[in-house]
Design brief:
Strand order of the largest sheet: 1-2
CATH class of the largest domain: Mainly Alpha
Distance between the termini: 69 Å
Order of helices and strands: HEEHHHHHHHHH
CATH superfamily of the largest domain: Tetracycline Repressor, domain 2
Amino acid sequence: MTRQAAVRDYGGVSAEERRGDRRRRLLAAGRHTWGSSGVADIGVRGVCRDAELAHRYFYESFDNRDAFIVAIADQVRSELMTTLVDASTADGGTIEERLRAALTAFLLAVSDDPSMLSIMTADVSSVAGLENRRRETLDLVAEVVLAHLAALPGSTITGDAVPELHKAAQFVVGGVNRLVENWLIDRDVTVERLADTCTRLCMAAAAGV
């Protein structure tokens, strides 16, 4: 094997695959720190230590700490949106049932990994671009809710009503986030019960527009 080939392929793993693995390990370490002690505690040295990687590998994938933090937020947003969309577009059931399924999937996801919600809703004004990411995430969740409400049989949500319903969806999503934050501290009801409550709030918001 030539030296060039060895660089490309070591132990049957390509250089690109090794870079991808290192990036995933760094993100996992940063995500754990953010979820357990807050974004302020994320540092290059600590992340590399937890990921068991030399410092130089951090800059292989990320320009700086802020870019790393934004990448964590993007990863969480992608996972949550995939969860919501996959559950809400599954075949079968009424619009309300599919909305409930999406909210149930969301609750199960943050129940299994509470860091997801804390990352999505954290006060991150000190990191350039992250506040916009947070708003975009909440807006995307609101769009999922809005799409289901607009598809209700007999819905008159068209034209001038759309902006008002969008505001209602944003209002509900903010309230749902607050409910979930409290629920993660004191899980006094089941996932299914909370999902049902959130669904009814969404439906009530639509009815009030």
